[in-house]
């Protein structure tokens, strides 16, 4: 099928690349010219395992191209994905201006046959209908006639387009895997023609043709109304964030009573009604989506006069959790002024270069405020131009330089390679070998044998 994906952030690029990989003819549009040039040269603007290889092979096969020409994209695609960002406004609500600009642009260029416009971006409940209206506005602006006065799209029995909500559930760092091995595909919309086209688009994925386990049962497709599909996305992220806040709360109680949250999480996770995933206690959740999506859902509830107390608690527990390592540093080192703290990891999770709302940022800010010197090593940030963009922290190029002269290390991101560092050597280079393991990721015994004083999170 002919597909156009508008917006090439994590979601747009992964969607475009994966749809071309399964045989569709895809054009990806972005209004950032520099990014488009980079992608046209075969380079991925983001670090995501496996993505560059798929991108290059699809380009070579002539099934994937990049452009900043929205008109060309709209003309090309029978299915048009909106995958631009919906960042948070200071109020917590979602900033939908990029979605609006794209929807208007689609309307202005819509011509020819029937199209399905897909909301892939995470958008506030009700946005499907709103996007439909904006597209109609765009059409009427181009035709310079008010919608409903002779505009072809106004005839409900013969629509020029339909809007479908198709929320994205991929995780950064495993985005390619998640796309080919999804737990479900959610399609919100009312026109069976649009839903049928979406089902055809995803058929190879539903049939597990590109899955790790090709014999796994078909991927379930859930068809809902527009608003329910939009709510599925927010509710999923809010549930996962709540699950983490819950285990973090349990970890803090474990710390006080002398229980071990890692064993506790194992014990509760074995209950199939609870499940073992997303029970890793630590220094809080971050990233480009959990914080903004939980806040946006809270804001939506508030708009409708409902006080979402559990969502509020989920955020509050996380805000406090992000400062846990600071409290632990104060307990260990007492006065932080003049001390040197080294951070192992900067990104909000491993296998990504994404720094959006990373717990490290808030820690750096507070350590600076308290007069500590902050150094960091991150496998991606340290090796890229990103290191020059960081403020309030000296980004070292290797772990030994990081350890040198530190009064304590804090493991912020559970990068796999941090498992097997030469901790004995690092301890010798430190002023005082203290380790706060913010992800309960390291082996206490190994660290203690290496000379460290070790402190986990409820562990
Ligand atoms: N990052 C993630 O892991 C996930 C994100 N989402 C949702 O997907 C959406 C996109 O997120 P990201 O990919 O992280 O976004 P992003 O912020 O990384 O990228 C957005 C892209 O859209 C482009 N763009 C903005 N306005 C445009 C316009 N008028 N025309 C063409 N391109 C335009 C930007 O240049 C940028 O390349 C958001 O709503 C997010 O909540 C959903 C699931 C996972
Ligand atoms: O809407 C989105 O953008 C995406 O948000 C999350 O994906 P992502 O933010 O990439 O990363 P996660 O693996 O969910 O981790 C989020 C944060 O929670 C933390 N986390 C995760 C799991 C856990 O057990 N404990 C924990 O503290 C991570 O360290 C990280 O800071 C969801 O998992 C995806 O399904 C969703 O599509």
UniProtKB/TrEMBL annotation:
Annotated keywords: NAD, Oxidoreductase
* Domain of life according to the entry: Bacteria
Q: Which reaction does it catalyse?
A: UDP-alpha-D-glucose + 2 NAD(+) + H2O = UDP-alpha-D-glucuronate + 2 NADH + 3 H(+)
Q: What Pfam families has UniProt attached to this entry?
A: UDPG_MGDP_dh (PF00984), UDPG_MGDP_dh_C (PF03720), UDPG_MGDP_dh_N (PF03721)
Top-level EC class, please? oxidoreductase
**Residues in domain UDP-glucose/GDP-mannose dehydrogenase C-terminal?**
342-444
Write down the EC number. Answer: 1.1.1.22
In terms of InterPro entries, this protein maps to: 6-PGluconate_DH-like_C_sf, NAD(P)-bd_dom_sf, UDP-Glc/GDP-Man, UDP-Glc/GDP-Man_DH_C, UDP-Glc/GDP-Man_DH_C_sf, UDP-Glc/GDP-Man_DH_dimer, UDP-Glc/GDP-Man_DH_N, UDPglc_DH_bac
SMART domains, alphabetized: UDPG_MGDP_dh_C
Metabolic or biological pathway, per its Swiss-Prot or TrEMBL entry? Nucleotide-sugar biosynthesis; UDP-alpha-D-glucuronate biosynthesis; UDP-alpha-D-glucuronate from UDP-alpha-D-glucose: step 1/1
Q: Which family, according to UniProt?
A: Belongs to the UDP-glucose/GDP-mannose dehydrogenase family.
What is the protein named?
UDP-glucose 6-dehydrogenase
């Amino acid at each position: 099928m002919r597909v156009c994906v508008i917006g090439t952030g994590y979601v747009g690029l992964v969607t475009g690349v994966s749809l071309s990989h399964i045989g569709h003819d895809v054009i990806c549009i972005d209004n950032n010219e520099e990014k488009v040039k980079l992608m046209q040269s075969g380079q991925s603007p983001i670090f995501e395992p496996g993505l560059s290889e798929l991108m290059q092979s699809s380009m070579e096969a002539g099934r994937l191209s990049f452009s900043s020409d929205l008109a060309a994209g709209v003309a090309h695609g029978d299915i048009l994905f909106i995958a631009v960002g919906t960042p948070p406004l200071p109020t917590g609500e979602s900033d939908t201006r990029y979605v609006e600009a794209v929807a208007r642009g689609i309307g202005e260029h819509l011509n020819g046959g029937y199209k399905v416009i897909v909301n892939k971006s995470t958008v506030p409940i009700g946005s499907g209908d709103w996007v439909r209206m904006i597209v109609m506005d765009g059409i009427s602006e181009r035709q310079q006639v008010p919608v409903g006065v002779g505009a072809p799209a106004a005839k409900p029995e013969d629509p020029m387009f339909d809007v479908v909500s198709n929320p994205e559930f991929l995780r950064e760092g495993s985005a390619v895997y998640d796309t080919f091995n999804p737990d479900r595909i959610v399609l919100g919309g009312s026109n069976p023609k649009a839903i049928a086209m979406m089902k055809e688009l995803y058929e190879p994925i539903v049939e597990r043709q590109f899955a790790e386990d090709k014999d796994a049962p078909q991927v379930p497709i859930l068809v809902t109304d527009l608003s329910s599909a939009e709510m599925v996305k927010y509710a999923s992220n809010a549930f996962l964030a709540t699950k983490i806040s819950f285990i973090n709360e349990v970890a803090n109680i474990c710390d006080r009573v002398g229980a071990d949250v890692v064993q506790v999480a194992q014990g509760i996770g074995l209950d199939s009604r609870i499940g073992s995933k997303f029970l890793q206690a630590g220094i809080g959740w971050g990233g480009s989506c959990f914080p903004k999506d939980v806040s946006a859902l809270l804001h939506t509830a508030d708009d409708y006069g409902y006080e979402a107390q559990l969502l509020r608690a989920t955020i509050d527990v996380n805000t406090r959790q992000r400062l846990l390592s600071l409290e632990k540093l104060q307990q260990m080192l007492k006065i932080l002024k003049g001390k040197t703290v080294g951070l192992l990891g900067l990104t909000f999770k491993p296998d990504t270069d994404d720094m959006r709302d990373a717990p490290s940022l808030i820690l750096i800010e507070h350590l600076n405020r308290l007069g500590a010197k902050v150094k960091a090593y991150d496998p991606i940030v340290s090796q890229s131009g990103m290191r020059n963009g960081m403020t309030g922290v000296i980004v070292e190029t290797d772990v030994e330089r990081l350890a040198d002269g530190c009064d304590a290390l804090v493991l912020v991101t559970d990068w796999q390679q941090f498992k097997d560092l030469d901790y004995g050597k690092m301890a010798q280079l430190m002023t005082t070998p203290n380790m706060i393991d913010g992800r309960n990721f390291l082996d206490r015994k190994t660290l203690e044998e290496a000379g460290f004083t070790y402190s986990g999170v409820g562990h």
